[in-house]
Design brief:
- With 274 residues, this protein is α+β, with helices and mostly antiparallel strands.
- It has one domain (5-15, 53-267): Ribonuclease Z/Hydroxyacylglutathione hydrolase-like (Metallo-beta-lactamase, Chain A, 4-Layer Sandwich), CATH 3.60.15.
- The protein is 20% helix and 28% strand.
- The protein has six helices and 18 strands.
- It has helices at 25-28, 44-49, 98-106, 124-131, 221-231, 252-267, and strands at 5-7, 13-14, 41-43, 53-60, 63-69, 78-83, 86-90, 112-114, 134-138, 152-155, 158-162, 165-169, 178-182, 191-195, 199-200, 207-208, 238-241, 247-248.
- Strands 4-5-6-7-8-9-10 form a seven-stranded mixed β-sheet, covered by helices on one side.
- Strand 7 (86-90), helix 3 (98-106) and strand 8 (112-114) form a beta-alpha-beta unit.
- Helix 5 (221-231) runs antiparallel to helix 6 (252-267).
- The longest helix has 16 residues, at 252-267.
- It is globular.
- The termini are far apart.
- The structure holds zinc ion (2 copies).
- The site of one zinc ion has 7 residues, from helix 1.
Amino acid sequence: MSDAWVCATCANHYPESESPPDSCVVCADERQWVPSGGQRWTTLARLAGDGHRSDVRELEPGLLGIGATPQVAIGQRSLLVRTGEGNLLWDPSGFIDDDAVRAVREAGGLRAVTASHPHFYGSIVEWSRAFDAEILLPEADASWLTRPSPAVRTWSGTLEVLPGVTLVQCGGHFPGSAVVHWAEGAGGAGALLTGDTIFVTPGEDRVTFVWSAPNRLPLPERDVRRVVEAVRPYAFERMYGGWWTPVLRERAKEVLESSANRYIEFLRGEAATT
Ligand SMILES: [Zn+2]
Ligand SMILES: [Zn+2]
């Protein structure tokens, strides 16, 4: 692993250099936050020295989760979608170690690595280097990558990365915010991997939308409608958000539509709240 600087708050990586940048551009943005005591930096070696380890779990046939324990920064766990023609890694955790790389190698390696949005680019360049894998970034958000790489390929709209594995640009949280539609997921009924493009809520029976999660800023109606419309052409029963839990296991498509309608009622002040 490299000595890249890792933002301790969002776990995005920055180029190796004598000293870290003054600030993390991802955390300085209104959607994120900087600790009241100021910007903090770490490295992969320091995180490992502090006791962080990879945590690899099979979530369903064809889908591996790879996170860190204890979790690092925002704490997203990656998802490895496996197909007969290669694998896609989604929402890489900011932490990566040899165990994680070995698990992916044993699962068939990596064709491409991508993420739902810039908060979850994490160790994307480290993964690309380990497998000589392409980094797929939406054109609209590519400038957010904090560690440049020649392996970047940009896309927009939709992109079928592997058979039955399609990136869908939804916008909202970021202009390039995306989901993965995985046709073979949920036993062939279809699954969506959403990061925080669509937020699964704790009861695992609703979803919600945010422009900023930590700062509790809502998503405007036009963006909510655009997210729902972007995934409407796809069949899916299950939805995986950015963390191990919650997971919306059943009826995800209907739940998305009804949750969006309820959310819009609140935005418009039309919801009865007594
Ligand atoms: Zn940061
Ligand atoms: Zn985010």
